[in-house]
Amino acid sequence: MEFKQRTLMELADMICGNAKEGKSTPFRYRSSSYLTEFFRDCDTDYTHDGSTRNWWVAETLKKLLAEPHSDAATPPRTFSNAIKILMDPGDAVDEGPERPAALAALNVALSREGFEAFYAPDRLASAARMSERESGLCLRYAARIAGPSSGNDEGKNRGDHVTVIVTNN
Asked: In the chain, is it the N or the C terminus that has fewer CB atoms within a 10 Å radius of its CB?
């Protein structure tokens, strides 16, 4: 799976906690050692090498996206873990645990690739459907699939979706 460089850089800036000049960011700032910790939490062995943080993170995300995955609509597990950890309610900056500003920024980047991140309204029920029966805050990714709609009124406006559920424990 490949994402555009612009998308990778925007996601990298979120993970790094980089703010645009004169603006604040809803993402926690991460120095070199905290970037290493972030990717360890994603179940990887990536260690920041001291290079420019956002470029290093973008290259690391590119490697995560190149890992095996089940189909074109499902991101690799470690990439999903990175998004889950990025959206951890405990890392909210100047907003509540639902993280509306962070979620909006994340969706600007993900939508470029045909993905949408959102919190499941039935968090526990969604999590219970997973084989591991994990509990906690769920973040689902819906990838729009190109092609004809199902023909009913609902399908006309929203398109077909494939959903991958990732829990935040």
From this structure: C
